[in-house]
Design brief:
Layout: H1 4-12, E1 14-15, H2 29-45, H3 56-66, E2 88-95, H4 100-108, E3 112-117, E4 122-128, H5 132-136, E5 141-146, E6 150-152, H6 167-183, H7 194-197, H8 200-207, E7 215-220, H9 226-231, E8 240-241, H10 251-262, E9 267-272, H11 277-289, E10 295-298, E11 300-302, H12 312-322, E12 326-330, E13 344-348, E14 351-355, E15 362-364, E16 373-374, E17 377-378, E18 387-392, E19 402-408, E20 414-418, E21 429-433, E22 442-449, E23 454-459, E24 488-495, E25 535-539, E26 545-550, E27 555-559, H13 574-591, H14 597-606, H15 627-634, E28 642-644, E29 648-651, E30 664-673, E31 679-687, E32 694-696, E33 699-705, E34 710-718, E35 728-738, E36 744-751, E37 755-763, E38 769-771, E39 775-785, E40 793-798, E41 815-817, E42 823-828, E43 834-839, E44 848-853, E45 871-875, E46 891-899, E47 906-908, E48 911-918
Parallel strand pairs: 7-9, 7-10, 8-9, 10-12, 12-24, 24-27, 44-45
Antiparallel strand pairs: 1-16, 2-4, 2-5, 3-4, 6-11, 13-23, 14-15, 15-22, 17-22, 18-21, 18-23, 19-20, 19-22, 25-26, 28-30, 29-30, 30-34, 31-33, 31-35, 32-34, 35-36, 37-48, 38-47, 39-46, 40-44, 40-48, 41-47, 42-43, 42-46
Length: 919
């Protein structure tokens, strides 16, 4: 029986704990709420086995489309499912194991694969709505969810509702700004106010450290404007990006500019965080274990990140931290209790004694007053279009307790819901979105089945606020997820200069101002939106009990800083604060290369300026970072960074530039100091593991090498007469000098013999192969190479018989594709070594035809614009193809093209390899 008294509570908010039978409560609008929850619960009780493994919103959307009258009893409800063309939806398929069989099943169901994470056991795919139960019913599938969404922590005016530009418009804008920057010789680079507010400029001048020898890497949405920022001098030319992980958007570009402002000589890297939670975790590991990043920073929260247990992303953070990286993360912009800006409540479930729905369930009582009950938490009128998440204290993947989440409007209608099945194998998680109009909205939590658990309810970007008949209840601790991981340094925000130029909500107090052009001091106030802690955790990553309370956030840094990136000038939010803190850590490491991550963290926290409650607090952590104080704490000195460069050869017998069997050659090895200080007493030891090859002398003294200077020395390398032409000789160079960065090592491969001028061509001979749209699976073609042995040079040719203008469906080109800027091409040798040939270059231009990618080309393909289309001529690849030649060339080579964005399509038609051997 539906409890009408429950409906009264949902509608009115607060009642006294009446002893009357709830069934005898007042009728009217109150009945509507209870009846609608009951209707939704009927759906939940009727699920098939395959449906029980689907996100509840997907099930309701399926039934609504199959039967127009299925939701007549809940006329105002919205599932929030974004159904796209072809009645497809973007989903995350959580598997026990990702296999080729599962991926093939997705394709057979009419799906398009968007991301694959073997370690995260997840496939993200665009799948027809009607095919979802075919996948969820498989034994290797744990669950099929609406693709988990994420947000960055760029604080923007909610009244700014401008749509993001189409990718074509964005590409044209970036090209126009790039051309303008290249034509301008007088424009000064923009330096963010955080550089001055953190006294980082003072620290660089005093300690003469610039980030040399350190690699700083960011994860965010994308780097669309990277080329424009590089052309204008805002960023260096050599930003390294994980292939295919460039992303979309520009918050990453803005974060890189902040890193570069404070640590101008640090190396930079990037990967997107927006291909799903599992892909995000993969990219965290990729930045450390593939690109070698020393400091990593992100500004992203996935909505399914548990507050109570470290999930896939947090575990990746801890993995790179355990390997020696420093990881900084935005604490969030979700508000705090002290400033009355929070939309977060957590605490133990309290059974209100009020039944909900026809079958089962009791509502949670938010009111801590034992003399009153309140089964709703009201939202402010500015809480529209925000995600709401509910978690409870069960282990991930093992929830036996089943809680549901409902959103009710002022008329008592259920407008949104989340009521997934939890029966022992699911996550303790529900999520819904508020509608655009949020007047009178209230949230209710219903225990459908199970024990009373500890709850976490968050309206991310919203606010719990008193309304007619109901009090808004908020508690500290909204910060969560990987930012609260043990290995992460969670960063709150305080303004560097001008205040946030809009009210968080109407009637709010004024936003604080920063010290620029001065530096931060103890009078500074944090941003009113910065998220508070602490973070209460119940479980270890494996799900075993491990209760603890983590102090979060850890530190505070500047936001409201200038960048050159449109839409991020000024750049507010903890998205801007985190890279400011990360860059200061880069300066510390640059002046103290031997410091451990724990010692860097200690320096930052011990010298932080206390700016809120006395001591460590739950809004600002230890306080706001000052670069000059942190470097004074650690001590710092300008470090040299001397590295061996590629050797050159002069054969003593014939004066040629090649090693040859039975001869001795003079090998010149340069050493360049790209550090901040003099490399004193520099020596180089040159050795080889190649049998029979001798080097004399083994070591040479290079003396003192000043900053920016290159010094050379010569060695005699003798090759036995029996060495086969084309054989690879490896030279290992170890450079030692006075400084903490010593020694540095480098290896070089020189081949025996003179490169042949005879070019052999090996072509792909298979059929035209379609490139899947927006799929990491890509299209891969094999190219068989025989009769070469060791190769002296390889070039990749995208062939074609006639290079047609920019048009769709060209059949005479090597690769036909509209919007070549979507494509990433990689070439893989038989040894398994790969090189990136092109990486999202060319913007809106179409088709590659008679293009040769050659390491010796004068121009880099990264500089092309749509005006060059159809793309032809000879260009340098993104990474050198020469790296593929350390092993013999004979065998199967593969060329893979991945389309990284939606809407444009094409095919691989004609490609070939041009290979030179040795004589």
């Amino acid at each position: 029986m539906i409890a009408a008294g429950a409906a009264a509570l949902l509608t009115l908010g607060v009642v006294s704990p009446a002893g009357a039978d709830p069934a005898r409560a007042s009728q009217g609008v109150e009945d509507r709420t209870a009846a609608q929850i009951a209707a939704l619960q009927e759906i939940k009780r009727s699920l098939s086995g395959a449906e029980s493994k689907l996100d509840s919103a997907l099930v309701v959307e399926q039934r609504r489309r199959a039967n127009a009258g299925a939701l007549n009893r809940v006329p105002a409800v919205q599932t929030g499912v974004k159904v796209q063309s072809g009645n497809t939806v973007l989903v995350d398929i959580r598997a026990h194991k990702v296999s080729d069989d599962l991926i093939n099943a997705v394709l057979a169901a009419g799906g398009g694969v968007r991301a694959v994470s073997v370690e995260g056991r997840t496939v993200r795919a665009q799948v027809p709505l009607g095919s979802l139960t075919r996948l969820s019913g498989r034994g290797d599938v744990r669950r099929v969810e609406t693709a988990v969404e994420a947000k960055t922590f760029h604080k923007q005016d909610p009244k700014n509702t401008a749509q993001a530009p189409a990718k074509e418009d964005k590409a044209r804008d970036v090209e126009a700004r790039t051309r303008e920057a290249l034509a301008s010789v007088s424009a000064a680079a923009t330096t963010g106010e955080g550089d001055r507010a953190h006294a980082a400029d003072t620290a660089r001048d005093e300690f003469r450290v610039t980030g040399t020898g350190v690699k700083l890497c960011a994860l965010s949405d994308g780097i669309d404007s990277l080329a424009a920022s590089q052309a204008s001098g805002e960023l260096p030319a050599n930003v390294e990006v994980l292939p295919g992980q460039e992303g979309s958007g520009d918050e990453g570009t803005a974060m890189l500019e902040i890193l570069h402002d404070i640590a101008p000589n640090a190396s930079l890297g990037f990967a997107t965080a927006f291909n799903g939670d599992a892909s995000f975790a993969d990219n965290i590991r990729g930045l450390r274990f593939e690109l070698g990043c020393d400091v990593i920073v992100d500004d992203v929260l996935y909505f399914n990140e548990s507050p109570f247990q470290d999930g896939v992303i947090a575990r990746a953070v801890d993995a790179v931290a355990a390997d020696g990286a420093l990881f900084f993360s935005s604490a969030g912009n979700e508000g705090n209790v002290a400033d009355r800006t929070s939309g977060h409540w957590e605490g133990q479930f309290v059974d209100s004694g009020v039944g909900i729905g026809k079958f089962a369930g009791t509502a949670h009582d938010f009111n801590p007053d034992p003399g009153a009950k309140q089964v709703v938490n009201p939202l402010s009128e500015s809480s529209g279009n925000v995600p709401v998440t509910l978690f409870w204290s069960d282990p991930l993947g093992s929830s036996f307790n089943d809680y549901d989440l409902y959103l009710v409007n002022a008329q008592g209608s259920v407008v949104a819901f989340s009521q997934g099945v939890q029966d022992g194998t699911q996550d303790p998680y529900e999520r819904l979105n508020t509608p655009a109009s949020s007047a009178g909205l209230r949230l209710a939590v219903v225990k459908f089945r199970g024990e009373d658990q500890y709850l976490s309810l968050s309206a991310l970007g919203g606010r719990f606020k008193d309304s007619t008949g109901a009090k808004g209840f908020a508690t500290p601790g909204v910060t969560r997820g990987h930012s609260a991981a043990k290995g992460a340094i969670s960063v709150a925000a305080a303004p560097a200069a001008d205040p946030l130029p809009f009210d968080l909500e109407p009637g709010d107090p004024a936003n604080p101002r920063g010290p620029f052009p001065g530096a931060f001091d103890g009078s500074q106030k944090p941003e009113r939106f910065t998220s508070d802690g602490p973070r209460r955790v119940f479980f270890a990553p494996d799900g075993s009990a491990a209760p603890e309370v983590r102090q979060k956030p850890d530190l505070t840094a500047a936001d409201g800083v200038s960048t050159s990136v449109p839409g991020f000038d000024p750049f507010f939010g903890t998205s801007a604060a985190a890279p400011n803190a990360a860059a200061i850590a880069g300066l510390i490491l640059s002046g103290n290369p031997g410091l451990s991550p724990a010692e860097v963290r200690e320096a930052l926290t011990a010298t932080a300026v206390d700016i809120a409650e006395a001591g460590v607090d739950n809004r600002t952590g230890a306080g706001i970072v000052r670069a000059d104080l942190a470097l004074a704490y650690t001590g710092a000195s300008p470090q040299p960074l001397a590295r061996a460069q590629r050797p050159s050869v002069v054969n003593d017998s014939d004066g040629s530039q090649y090693l040859k069997p039975g001869t001795t050659s003079t090998v010149t090895v340069p050493v360049t100091n790209n550090g901040d200080g003099t490399a004193a007493s520099t020596s180089l030891v040159l050795t080889t593991p190649t049998a029979g090859v001798t080097i004399a002398p083994r070591s040479k003294h290079y003396g003192n090498i000043e900053v920016g200077q290159t010094v050379t020395n010569t060695f005699k390398v003798s090759v036995p007469s029996g060495v086969r032409v084309g054989s690879a000789i490896k030279l290992d160079a170890r450079v030692t000098y006075s400084g903490s960065t010593s020694p540095t090592t480098a290896s070089f491969t020189l081949n025996v013999g003179e490169p042949s001028r005879d070019v052999k061509t090996f072509s792909y001979t298979g059929p035209v192969l379609a490139i899947p749209d927006n799929s990491p699976l890509g299209a891969t073609v094999p190219i068989e190479v025989t009769g070469v042995g060791s190769a002296s040079k390889v070039a990749l040719s995208i062939d074609g018989t006639q290079c047609t203008p920019n048009m769709d469906g060209s059949t005479t080109v090597g690769i036909d594709h509209t919007f070549v800027g979507d494509l990433v091409g990689t070439l893989t040798a038989p040894s398994g070594v790969s090189a990136t040939v092109f990486q999202r270059n060319g913007a809106t231009g179409s088709n590659l035809c008679q293009v040769v990618f050659d390491d010796s080309a004068a121009r880099a393909f990264s500089t092309v614009t749509s005006a060059n289309a159809p793309f032809t001529g000879t260009w340098r690849p993104t990474t050198p193809l020469g790296a593929l030649l350390e092993q013999p060339a004979d065998g199967t080579w593969t060329f893979k093209v991945v389309d990284t964005a939606a809407a444009d399509r094409g095919s691989i038609r004609a490609v070939s390899l041009k290979i030179n051997g040795y004589i």
